[in-house]
Design goal:
alpha+beta; Alpha-Beta Plaits; globular
Length: 73
């Protein structure tokens, strides 16, 4: 079973371009249990499909913070 988590980038660091979108996708997909990532510079949203038995929303949020993105769900 997968769960979809939707994050909104709220901090000073924004998703600026397709390179940023790709960087976010690569970083999150390295977490076990992350199935799919859709990051958008246009909407400043990051949608992440996860297996909740393998990874938590807090772990995904921590990885985004390590990348420099402050997010709200």
């Amino acid at each position: 079973m997968t769960t979809l988590i939707d994050f909104q980038v709220i901090g000073d660091e924004k998703i600026h371009c397709s390179g940023c979108e790709t960087r976010i996708g690569f970083a999150l997909r390295r977490l076990p249990g992350v199935r799919d990532v859709q990051a958008s510079a246009n909407t400043q949203r990051i949608a992440v499909s996860i297996d909740p038995e393998a990874v938590s929303a807090d772990e995904v949020r921590a990885r985004l913070q390590a990348l420099g993105y402050e997010v709200a769900s």
